[in-house]
Amino acid sequence: MKKARLFFQLVGVGIFTISLIIVSCTKEGPMGPAGADGTDGIDGEDGNSTCMACHNTTTKTNIEAQFSLSVHNAGLNAVDYAGGRASCAECHSHQGFVQFATTGDVVGNISNPTAWECATCHGLHETMGAGDYALRLKDPVNPIFDPSITMDLNGNSNLCANCHQSRRAEPALTNPGEDTFRITSTHWGPHHGAQANSVYGVGFAEIEGSVDYPEAGSSFHLKQASCTGCHMADFDNDRDEGGHTWNPSLVACNTCHEANEEDFNYGGVRSDIAAKLDVLRDELLRLGVLEWVEEDEAYEPVPGTYPTVQARAFFNWVGLSEDRSFGAHNPKYIRALLINTIEAVQAEPTPGV
Ligand code: HEC
Ligand code: HEC
Ligand code: HEC
Ligand code: HEC
Ligand code: HEC
Ligand code: HEC
């Protein structure tokens, strides 16, 4: 009788209730079998353990201190001169790079360019997992000198390659098959920091000679370390190297090489490359492609038309000098370039003799 009593209690509560009761009196079939379980969702990252690995006060304070030592933070050479110009800003200012990373382009001149800050390189997270450093760009790069190829600098180091790359192709690519080449200005060359090209092993003038060039992308320093492995290894307080100073870390070299060197001259390679750069410079002076300019206190190319091999040789000399790693970026490639280039220019006759 339980059901009937409930029925009478509810009468009079209102038309709405009555209609519900009528529905509940409709005859129903037996309950069907239970459906299959849904698939499990992907486990989330543990909140505290993974987020706090990077987001804690000590890390942030330490990184800010390292950053204050860095050339990126100072931006002394880069920002005033080129940070506002539309064609330079993607690599030379915070505003320019953020625009480039977000839209792929810099639309016009920037009136108040500033130097690098945390948000220049870091934007939004993608996965929030370990290794997601919220970097704005980290995909392999289609280099400016030849966008049809891809340079994969290995993970986070691709960020660096967007800026630290050649802005010009070498003469045999721009003017294939021509015997002479015109150097148009004292600024001509790959640009001041083509490190991604040297590390990857592409974009310099591969003049034929006695040494074979290693295959692009094959170097052990690229595969095992790349930019971040040497320049952003754990910060070393004694030498102010690594981390967000971007100074290459001697500890990183010694750890991986199981060595105990006191400088970057591992195996004497640095002195050897420095000496070869001097030999090449002297050959270019002899050929009149290069001259010492007193007022700039610098060696500069003499604008003019030269046999293509000499222009290619100058391209390598200036590019590898401004690379400033003296071989470390890619010992085999840099050594091959210099040996073959020196052989080629030594065979060129002194003009007017
Ligand atoms: C591998 C290191 C790392 C881990 C792990 C990490 N973050 Fe970040 N996060 C960063 C960096 C680097 C930045 C950008 C620089 C800054 O703001 O300190 C950032 C920025 C942020 C920002 C501000 C920018 C944005 O994306 O909106 C938030 C919010 C954030 N993280 C939340 C989290 C949360 C929540 C977790 C855990 C689920 C997490 N992060 C895990 C490194 C990390
Ligand atoms: C937005 C472009 C940009 C990005 C991204 C960038 N750099 Fe730089 N970097 C520059 C410019 C421009 C300078 C020169 C700054 C100056 O002299 O004012 C510089 C300076 C440096 C220096 C110091 C050079 C010196 O004269 O002592 C090092 C080392 C360096 N970058 C390494 C890196 C590494 C490694 C990465 C990637 C983790 C990176 N950079 C990412 C543009 C960039
Ligand atoms: C693809 C990126 C990129 C573009 C575009 C670019 N630069 Fe640079 N530039 C760099 C990098 C990276 C460095 C620093 C390299 C280093 O320190 O090894 C640099 C350095 C320089 C320096 C040398 C600063 C010094 O150390 O004495 C000058 C001058 C310069 N750039 C001018 C310009 C001008 C002018 C433009 C535009 C016409 C321009 N750059 C466009 C990447 C770029
Ligand atoms: C020139 C680009 C650049 C700038 C500017 C920069 N970072 Fe980074 N940051 C990186 C890269 C690249 C990594 C990843 C390094 C790696 O793969 O080892 C990183 C890693 C990190 C990490 C996680 C790894 C760690 O060391 O704990 C944190 C946190 C971080 N950055 C915070 C900052 C903060 C805070 C600032 C500003 C004070 C800043 N970054 C400025 C490029 C940059
Ligand atoms: C094998 C380790 C290693 C790798 C990988 C590496 N670097 Fe270097 N880099 C060095 C050393 C060593 C120097 C010379 C430093 C010195 O003489 O003080 C150097 C010099 C530089 C300089 C000039 C710094 C200065 O103080 O004049 C820049 C800029 C630079 N590297 C950027 C990069 C970029 C960008 C990448 C990745 C494309 C990269 N490096 C990869 C070790 C490395
Ligand atoms: C992650 C590992 C790793 C790091 C970091 C590393 N190297 Fe290497 N390096 C190698 C390997 C592997 C070789 C090839 C084997 C060999 O010749 O010893 C090599 C070879 C070299 C060579 C060529 C030796 C020769 O005679 O041809 C030089 C020079 C060199 N490294 C310098 C450096 C310097 C300087 C640093 C630090 C700025 C450095 N390496 C950091 C792994 C590394």
Task: Write up this protein.
By secondary structure, the protein is mainly α. The protein has a domain at 63-136. It has 18 helices and 4 strands. The protein has helices spanning 2-10, 15-24, 47-54, 57-68, 71-74, 79-82, 89-92, 94-103, 118-121, 158-161, 171-174, 195-200, 220-224, 226-231, 250-257, 269-287, 308-323, 331-346, and strands spanning 180-183, 290-293, 298-301, 304-307. The strands form 2 sheets. Strands 1-4 form a two-stranded antiparallel sheet. Strands 2-3 form a two-stranded antiparallel ribbon. α16 runs antiparallel to α17, α16 (269-287) runs parallel beside α18 and α17 (308-323) packs antiparallel against α18. The chain is globular and about 105 Å long. Residues 1-27 have low confidence and may be disordered. The chain binds heme C (HEC) (6 copies). Residues 71-72, 75-78, 91-92, 97, 121, 159-160, 162-164, 227-228, 231-232, 246 line the site of one heme C (HEC).
